[in-house]
Amino acid sequence: MKYLKIILSHLKTACVYFTVSQLFITALFQITAKNGAEGRFLLFDVELVLLGFSVVMSVVQDVFGIKKLSFGVRLLIHFLLTMAALFLLFRIVTGQIANTRSVILMMAICAVIYAVFAAVLIIVRVFRKKKDDENKEYKSMFSDEKKK
Fold first, then answer.
1. Reported confidence tier of residue 41, pLDDT bands at 50, 70, 90
2. What mean pLDDT do residues 2-6 have?
3. Can you give the pTM of this predicted structure?
4. Contact assessment for residue 46 and residue 28, using Cβ atoms and an 8 Å cutoff
5. What pLDDT shows up at residue 34?
6. CA neighbours closer than 13 Å in the CB half-sphere of residue 137
7. pLDDT in tens, 84-141
8. Distances in Å between the alpha carbon of 102 and those of 59, 91, 145, 146?
9. Which one of 13, 53, 86, 106 is separated from 92 by 20 to 30 angstroms, measured CA to CA?
10. Domain limits of the chain?
């Protein structure tokens, strides 16, 4: 039963990733279409690749659940796994083995977007930790010794 909950949780997250990635890829195909007839619909194989990408990304999110690693290490591992998944996605979807320049450009854009989100996440985390430390009540280590 525990494994079923884990699988369902990953599938729910994968559904969100699938929807967002499908909208992104469809918009990208619309923008790059040369005439109005091209790029209106995604092919079934592209849909399957997006679904696989979504499932992989929902599993990659589990990296943040590893509390034994520091936040910076978890963020670095998440970044590397995300970039690897995006690289495979772009290589498969574009289907252009020889044209690596466009894949590298898309990867660079995604890395910059990831860096912006990571910077915001780090700033929010620092302020939240500072606020928690300020609200924490001071407890003296030596107060018990004075009472004895």
1. low
2. 84
3. 0.70
4. no
5. 66
6. 1
7. 888 887 777 666 554 677 778 888 888 999 999 999 999 998 988 888 777 777 777 7
8. 27, 10, 68, 70
9. 13
10. 2-132
Q: What spatial distance separates the first Cα and last Cα of the chain, rounded to whole Å?
A: 52
- Contact call for residues 39 and 29 (beta carbons, < 8 A): yes
The burial of 14, by beta-carbon neighbours within 10 Å (0-12 exposed, 13-18 middle, 19 or more buried), is given as buried
SS3 assignment for the chain: CHHHHHHHHHHHHHHHHHHHHHHHHHHHHHHHCCCCCCCCCCCHHHHHHHHHHHHHHHHHHHHHHCCCCCHHHHHHHHHHHHHHHHHHHHHHHHCCCCCHHHHHHHHHHHHHHHHHHHHHHHHHHHHHHHHHHHHCCCCCCCHHHHHC
